Amino acid sequence: MEYGELDKITEKVTELLSEKNFREIKRLINELQPQDSALLIDAMNEKDILPIFRLLSKENAAETFVEMSSDGQELLLNSFTDAELKAVLDEMFLDDTVDIIEEMPANVVKRIIKQSDAETRKQINEILKYPRDSAGTIMTVEYVSLRENWTVKECFDRIRKIALDKETIYNCYVTDSKRKLIGGVTVKDLLLHDYDTEISEFMQREIICAEANDDKEYVAQQISKYDLSAIPIVDSENRMVGIVTVDDVLDVMQQEATEDISKMAAVTPSTDTYMEQSVWQIWKNRIPWLLILMVSATFTGLIINSFEGRLNALSPLLFACIPMLMDTGGNAGSQASVTVIRGLALEEIRPKDALRVLWKELRVSVMLATCLAIVCFGKLYLLDGLAFGYNYTWYICLAVSLSLFATVVIAKIVGCMMPLLAKVCKLDPAVVASPFITTIVDALSLIIFCFISMSILPPFLA
To answer: What are the C-alpha distances in Å from 43 to residues 52, 55, 132, 272?
Structure first.
């Protein structure tokens, strides 16, 4: 649903509420997809959220609840009767329940645990024991387990019996009596074989899996790499403990991309959306980075102060070129760093490829720097010098253009090497992206410009 449609439906529901036409509201919201009905309920006034949610059918209520914002979920959890809370929890998959528990305050968590049965409580506690950001925290224990000596008919009987409680039935996993993973079959495999055939004859024994303590981003990469719809999760003894499905992985990829973008923009990542964050939270996420970058940028000011007198003596016009040099160098460094960071994230680039990356970026930087230097020379000499009458002589243009050439080459090298260095040091490459690289390149570009200018210009000014 697009936001324009959401606004129209929200207005319609608000109008129906004022008329107390609950029958029409019930029909309207139950025709929506759970994701859309969640957006609708989140957009309503707080006092209207619970009445509207109660109009959802039993089948839609749990799915809608899972898709709602954490604020909306908390409001409903605080408003539910024990019977309503239990009804919603009974319809939810375990991994969704755990996700909600991790977002809720302690008093709400106690209510959720209290309304869960003993087996569910045990499973929830097991998942919550896994390290943060591990595969265990996003897996579901609701999967189809089969035995290798079962026939196709026995497998279908088993699937029909337990299908309603499982998150997916297309991928089935073959385990022994101790839950050790032996292989896997799909429903398609079962459909293509006779009822009396044992699955040991055609099941896939070499199966891609991940450990519960593996990073969830690694699991997402495995699913993407091998085009899987689900991946089995095992413990250190190869015992099956759950599965991670592609819908969970999409959430992980979105979270990781958001986190990287935040770090590259010098903002502390947050799990809340922009609209959910308070002004205080946004300030707290941004101020540390701005303070660090402001202090680090003082080095640029020190360099300018150190060379100010000598540059003025050579030509006051040189100062007018400093912003252009710094901006171009920062942009060039950012281009290289973002490319390498993305390659590292997708495992297209590894630290051992450092020399290959350096050689490639060096050649690219020389080509780019040559082009930019020529355009810069022409722009200063013809446009600024001749058209606008500024005293840009050819030797000043030469000094600036050579400085630009050197700045772009250095910026590209710094931009491609810093993320790789961060990876080797087991740091997040995104942290050293644009802001820090720009600050470093700014300082280097000034030093290069000052030394080239003082080396080239004095003979011509004598």
So the answer is: 11, 16, 31, 16
